[in-house]
Specification:
Length: 76
């Protein structure tokens, strides 16, 4: 995968205990996603080294990124 590549995927987070309400509402939905950047060590994230994915074509209420591991890719 490269920056700005797009995939169609279902949002299926591995952990759900720390999701914001907007993210919870999108669990199980198929959406188009774009690879934005590699998650860096300074993000203090367990997802270091993965792609940070942003939804495209969804509603205006979604904020933030999700790690690639939380997506089940339907189509590349």
């Amino acid at each position: 995968m490269r920056q700005f590549d797009k995939v169609v995927a279902t949002f299926n987070p591995k952990r759900r205990d720390d999701l914001n309400p907007e993210a919870v509402a999108h669990i199980g939905l198929v959406t188009e996603w774009r690879a934005m950047r590699i998650i860096e060590p300074e993000d203090n994230s367990q997802f270091e080294g993965q792609w940070a994915m942003m939804p495209l074509g969804s509603d205006d209420h979604w904020t933030g990124w999700v790690p690639l591991e939380d997506l089940e890719i339907v189509d590349r």
